[in-house]
Amino acid sequence: MKKRGIGIGCMYYGMGYGFSRPDVSAAEVEICEDGSIIVRSGEVDYGQGSDTIFCQMVAEELGIRYDTIQLITADTFATPNAGPTSASRLTYVTGNAMVKASRAIKKTLQSVAEEILGERDLLFLDEEIFSESHPERRISFRQLAKEGHLRGLPMVETAWHDITTKDVNPETGQGDAYSTYAYAAQLAEVAVDTETGEVEVLRIVAAADVGKAINPSNVEGQIEGGVAMGLGYALTEEIKEEGGYLKTRNLGEYMIPTSMDVPPIDPHIVEVPVSSGPYGAKGVGEPALIPTAPAILNAIANAIGVRVTELPANLENLHRLIREKERD
Amino acid sequence: MSKEPGKTLLKMKVNGKAVEVMVNPTWTLLRVLREELRLTGTKKGCEQGDCGVCTVIMDGRTVNACLVLALQTESKEIETIEGLGTADQLHPLQKSFIKHGAVQCGFCTPGMLLSAKALLEKNADPTLEEIKRGISGNLCRCTGFVKIIKAIQNVHR
User: Fold this and answer.
1) Catalytic sites of A, residue numbers
2) Cross-chain residue pair A260–B136, CB shorter than 8 Å
3) Is B24 domain-assigned?
4) Average pLDDT in the B38-63 region?
5) Is residue B87 part of a domain?
6) Which of A200, A259, A266 to mutate to test the interface with B (most CBs of B within 10 A)?
7) What CA–CA distance (Å, rounded) separates B97 from B82?
8) What φ, ψ does residue A263 adopt, rounded to 5°?
9) How far apart are CA A288 and CA A284, in angstroms?
């Protein structure tokens, strides 16, 4: 018989390293004579889209086109340290460094533009700098960059952002643990075969508070990918070892979800800006994954009254738990 | 071509061009594509047919290039990601993948695109189930497949 159930999983997650562990990131923004931009940072984009959103941030600050930016990353010969891609921290930590460096160089450009245009109420928009009150007084970003170089002004700025916290009292556990927190909740709907123990996940609804979605499509991708990883963690993925040797040595033995296994996913982006984040943003990488397994296990319990306490809830384990429950 | 000991002349077509290459009988198609022909768009992953990142099209059907011996491709026609489109003129599937945000780390993408192309050539308007089955040999760890499936569904829309 197939029984259906629903379950919810919720989580909060400390951004970055916390507990007084050093958590710093650097970015360098350089404006070339032709108005193109070089951004250097030790950050690593391994698919989560940090390169994309950092270019978005610099473009936003300087009012320039995204595709005029050349990004050089993760090269100790050329880039300042940004710390590791981990703890869902890049948007939150490196993002702040990007915004700081962009604003520092913008300040220099602003002073040059004020001198040339004779106005102070200047906007940087669509590759141009113009006066709000006298919009006919304008200069192209490209020309302004050249003027900056002709004056011998600093056309490169490095920014450093530090979110290292003070730590907590080891006796009471109270104090400054993390710089900020991310929140997420997911709902799973499952059908469990009471004969075989097979769990079919019918649907996942996943909401994540990301502060501000710098790139909504990227955030959805992170949520959907996180759910798929959480699904594998809940139902199939298991590292087996025997006598110190790994028995699951390839993707035929360590079973990750395929396109056939991933259910419809309904991602919801929640935006509650955090004042310490760039544009209010914080990370989403791990928060997207954490609630999935608890939601699925709660849905299994709701469907058949069996509480899974050891992962994965694969056929073998769930079948055994169902038989044990029948015996009691 | 000069004679090399232990090697055999292989003649095939790669992305529409006739290719002649001296191969060792133990080499796979993957090795020939990447090491001899320098077509590194075809990725090397598990090398045992589990992950699908080395997917190429051989005479209209997708194969894992790591599981095909090079000499099995004699007189056959191979399509790799390099033959799908160029940076200036992307294939509609490539445009759709970009539009729908179907690429994250990108390592599965070449194989995924070729599986999608082979599917659409046989079945121009596949159902959701047919798309899922069509790319079921291509593992993706980043996307959860959602946007990849959307990109394939909406390639002509």
Assistant:
1) 286
2) yes
3) yes
4) 97
5) no
6) A259
7) 16
8) -80, 175
9) 6
Nearest CA in chain A to B109: A47
pLDDT at B1 over 70: no
Binary contact (A217, B46; C-beta < 8 A): no
Question: Rounded to whole angstroms, how far apart are CA atoms B91 and A238?
Answer: 39
pLDDT confidence bin for B142, thresholds 50/70/90: very high
Q: How high is the pLDDT of residue B112?
A: 98
Read off the CATH number of the domain in which B52 is found. 3.10.20.30
pLDDT band at B4 (very low <50, low <70, confident <90, very high): confident
CB contact under 8 A, B141 and A46: no
CB A250 to CB B46 under 8 A?
Answer: yes
Reading the block at residue A17, the tokens are: 């390293």
Helix (H) or strand (E) holding A323: helix A315-327
Which domains can be identified in chain A, with CATH numbers? 2-15+179-327 (3.30.365.10), 24-161 (3.30.365.10)
Q: What is the pLDDT of residue A287?
A: 96
Strand ranges across the sheet with A2-14? A2-14, A181-193, A199-209, A265-270
Identify the CATH number of the domain in which residue B105 sits.
1.10.150.120
Res B3: pLDDT: 66
Are B116 and B55 part of one and the same domain? no
Give the nearest partner residue to A228 out of B48, B132, B145, using CB atoms: B145
Last residue within a domain, chosen from B79, B114, B132: B79
Categorize the per-residue pLDDT at B5 as very low, low, confident or very high, splitting at 50, 70 and 90: confident
Instruction: Choose one of B56, B79, B102: the last residue of a domain.
Output: B79
For residue B133, tell me if it sits in a domain: yes
ipTM: 0.94
| Total count of domains within chain B | 2
Question: If contacts are CB pairs under 8 Å, which of residues 191-220 in chain A contact chain B?
Answer: 217-218, 220
Residue B2 reports pLDDT greater than 70? no
Q: Classify residue B85: in a domain, yes or no.
A: no
Query: Cα separation of A275 and B5, whole Å?
Result: 69
The total of other beta-carbon atoms located within 10 Å of residue B18's CB is 8
Q: Are B53 and B138 in contact (CB under 8 A)?
A: yes
Element containing residue A24 per DSSP (H, E): strand A24-31
**Same domain, residue pair B140 and B105:** yes
**Residue ranges of chain A with pLDDT lower than 50?**
none
Name the residue facing B141 among A218, A227, A256 (closest C-beta): A256
Give me the pLDDT at residue A245, please.
Answer: 95
Tell me how far apart the alpha carbons of residues B140 and B150 are, in angstroms, rounded to a whole number.
15
Structural domain of residue B41, as residue ranges?
Answer: 8-79
Same structural domain for residues B63 and B107?
no
Chain B nearest-CA distance from A112, in A, is 38
Contact A265 B148 (CB under 8 A): no
